[in-house]
Design brief:
The radius of gyration is 21 Å and the shape is elongated. The protein has 216 residues and is of the alpha+beta class. About 4% of the residues have low confidence. It contains seven helices and seven strands, in the order ααβαββαββααββα. Bound molecules: adenosine-5'-diphosphate (ADP) and magnesium ion.
Length: 216
């Protein structure tokens, strides 16, 4: 809009054509922003989500394979580690797969241009009622200016980033009574971890656990 205003002030032979191009761009981006906000609002107001007992290994494998489809995932080395005790989580499968997809896309984006690119997806039983899932990369880690606001909407270090991925992840995980947080990967890079409950009753108590990390 500012560019269009400057063109109109200059008002030379190119003004009409260039202003039209700029306004086309304005219009497209406004529609894009509106769509994103509407989808987010629909999601957030959908009310109580349907949850059931879901096999963790299959859910994680499916989501990872889906997120790895596409050229940007070529040449990524994926390591899985499935805790045999982490059998069933009480979740909305589609939503948790959306969380995994967002985390994996971020991990891949953090490793663009790196050779090799290594993605590690693990499940672990942390106690009788709590499963932890982690997505680790070997990228540059989280930039300092972002760290404190990592899960807030519209926080992004990427040129084309919307900054909604992690805020959606947090909304979903907390709607499941779980926690999500980031850690530095000891071998370099970043680990995103989140917890899930194994049964309907364990969700609430998990959310209250004093020893579980809280990153808001
Ligand atoms: N695996 C990661 N490694 C490094 N930085 C990350 C990682 N995941 C997220 N981030 C940081 O958090 C920001 C917010 O992520 P997200 O909410 O998914 O938005 P977006 O991906 O659109 O930028 C990213 O822009 C990036 O700076
Ligand atoms: Mg993202």
């Amino acid at each position: 809009v500012n560019a269009a205003r400057r063109l109109l002030i200059r008002n030379d032979s190119d003004t009409v054509e260039m202003t039209r191009e700029v306004m086309d761009e304005v219009s497209q981006q406004a529609v894009r922003a509106a769509t994103i906000v509407r989808r987010l609002r629909d999601f957030l107001t959908r009310g109580e989500t349907e949850k059931q007992g879901v096999g963790v290994t299959k859910m994680v494998e499916e989501a990872t394979e889906l997120a790895l489809i596409g050229s940007e995932a070529l040449g990524v080395k994926v390591t899985y580690g499935f805790d045999p005790r982490a059998q069933t989580a009480f979740v909305n499968r589609v939503q948790i797969q959306q969380v995994l997809g967002n985390l994996i896309r971020n991990a891949l984006e953090a490793m663009v241009g790196l050779v090799p690119r290594e993605l590690t997806v693990l499940t672990a039983m942390v106690d009788k009622e709590t499963i932890e899932i982690s997505v680790a990369d070997i990228g540059p880690g989280i930039v300092d200016s972002i760290r404190a606001h990592l899960f807030q909407p519209f926080v992004s270090s990427k040129r084309d980033g919307m900054g909604l991925g992690l805020s959606i992840c947090r909304t979903i995980v907390e709607a499941h009574g779980g926690r999500i947080w980031a850690e530095a990967n000891p071998t370099g890079g970043t680990v995103l971890r989140f917890t899930l409950a194994t049964s309907p009753s364990s969700g609430a108590s998990n959310a209250e656990r004093a020893d579980s990390p809280r990153r808001r």
